[in-house]
Structure formats: structure tokens, C-alpha cells
Fold these 2 entries.
Entry 1:
Amino acid sequence: AVAISQAATIAAVSEIHLGRSISIGGAFAEARGSILPICVISLVLGLFMMLGFMLLIVPGILMMLRWALVIPVVVIEGLPMNAAMARSSALTEGHRGRVFLIYVLYFIITLVFSALWEVPNGVASVMSRSTGGLSPVWVSVAAQAGTFATQSLVGPLLTIPLALLYYDERS
């Protein structure tokens, strides 16, 4: 679902950036051809970055910054994974500080939105346990709904700036 929404968001940003209008359905239709490659690439890059983070965090961050534009490259240019990784690396060369700031801002916004759901939910959970019972089911449902809402609302706030950065670095 994340890959599909990223592909559609990038397709929409691309069309708007080029001065053309696009509907939500049109964005998903335009992204249709890149969904499977994006799923595979997201899985492979996720494994690479996870391995990098396990190697004292810094290698994972460096990989994340280097390959931040892989998904926009795949959606817009239609390149295969290895070529997209090389293209992203070339596009971000010398500009990884900007990519890092995008990720930091995304992280901060995610924390704020998560806190809006998790703090009241945590208080409700603690209050229900203080009476000697288990947390009610609605507390778990509210936690999952809050996580989904946070990801749905904040997720595009990473995809959109990365797509715009792609166009900025491409020119």
C-alpha cells in the first residue's frame, strides 16, 4: 500500500510540477506500471538499509541519503533498480545535507502527530489498568487507528519533498 501511494503521489507531483492537472484516479493510473518494481525496490533497499543500520547506524543513514531519490527515478524515468540506485546516488551527490534535513523534518512531524494520538491513548490505558482491569479493546483499536492516521497524513510529507528534490537536482 505504501509503494502504491508513493508511486501515485510522485506521479501527481510530477504532473503538477510540469503544469498539467491530474486527478487522484489519473495519478494511480499513471503509477500503475511502476508499482511492482517499486515494491521490489522498496524491499531490497529496506534490507540494505536495515543491514546498514545494524552496522552502527551511520552506514544505514548514508545509504538512506544516497538512495533517497530511487523511487522518483523509477516512477518518472522508468529505470530498473540498479540504474535507479546509480541515478539517485548521482542526483544526491553534494546535496545529501538537503536530503537529511527533509528526513529530520519528516521525523519531527511524525513524532508530533504520533504524540497527538499516543499520549491520550496511553493515559486512557493507564487509567483503565489502575482500576485493576485490562485495557479495553477500544484502546487497542484507537492506537491502531492513530498509527494509520499518522502514516496516512504524514507519509506524503516525505514523498512530496523527495519528488520535488528530484526535479530540483535533475535540472
Note: The radius of gyration is 19 Å.
Entry 2:
Amino acid sequence: MRKAIHQLHFEGSFHGELPELGLPEIAFAGRSNVGKSSALNTLLQRKRAARTSSTPGRTQAINLFRLGDAGVFADLPGYGFAKVPQHVKDKWKQTIESYLSTREQLRLVVVLVDARRKPTALDGQLLWALVEQSIPSLVVATKVDKLKRSQRGKQLAQIRREFQLTKGQPIAFSSVTKEGRDAVWDAIEAAAAGPTLRRV
């Protein structure tokens, strides 16, 4: 799948019904300002495939990126930004829940968390919702380059304990140093090669 990044095509931003592309789909989710767009750009080896912003909450639609005939990346709206009006939060929640429950080609949800912050209830709720719907997840800890060496192990261990993650998670990731890029791609390709998920 990663070999198809040179065939990257932006399918568009969608607030309602999404097109059925018939390809394995990998979704990316996380709190606002967690570095999701930067992570996508790092994986796709583009500077501006996904729009980055210093303003949390900018991504309010689902953005689809098709990698030739290999698969699709879905950039989901960020959640948890306090200054966003409640009706917008409700809309985001509805959009994400609808996506997760109806997207037949979805193979994996990459949940990005900030390695510098304490695990949050919203991240835990998303991971639990994925478990309930039998959707595989991969937790990626972003911005590890901003941690001191003495802090790094402690922070990653805290995330692992809080979310009861399996060995190998969270994957330490940096959009600056590119650390973790290959590990995330390995997980994505393994999931994309698997069978279509059955909704429960």
C-alpha cells in the first residue's frame, strides 16, 4: 500500500454521505491539535496532502485520500476542543459514529494521542467504541521528539496502562524525525491485507 503513495489522489471533503470506493480503508482519529494532519503528511511523504493548522478543530469534515488502487486514508474530524460550540461537537460525534458503524471497507482506525499529555477519557471512549464494534485499532503516540529522554518511557508506559494496550503499542511517532513511520505503515499494510470487517 505504501508503494502507491505516488498515486495519491484527494477524493474530497465530505459532511454527509461518502463515496464507496471499494478499497481497504484506514481511518485516522484523534483529539484536535494532536498532530493528525502532520502525521498523515509524514506517512504520505507530502508537505501538504492533509491541511495542517495551529488552530484546533479546523478539520470538520471527513477527508478521503485514495492511494491508487491500493487503499484509502480517511482523515476524521478532530474531537475534544473546548472552544468549539456544543452543536458542532454533537455534529462531529454523530459524523464519527455514523462513519464507524457503516463503513464496510474499514480495516483499521489509527488513534493518535499526544505523547506529552495524560491519556484522556475521550480517547478511551473512542477505543472502547472500536472494541464494541470489533474494529481493530492502532494507538500512535505523536510528538515524541518533544519529550526528554527521561520522560519518554514513563509517558508511553502511562498510555499503555491506561488503555490496556497490547505489546508494541503505542507506537512512538514523530513528524519531525520520522520516527515510527515504518512501524505505522507495517501495521496499516497488515490490516489492509486482511478480510473485510463484519459489523456486529
Note: Confidence is low (pLDDT under 50) at residues 52-57.
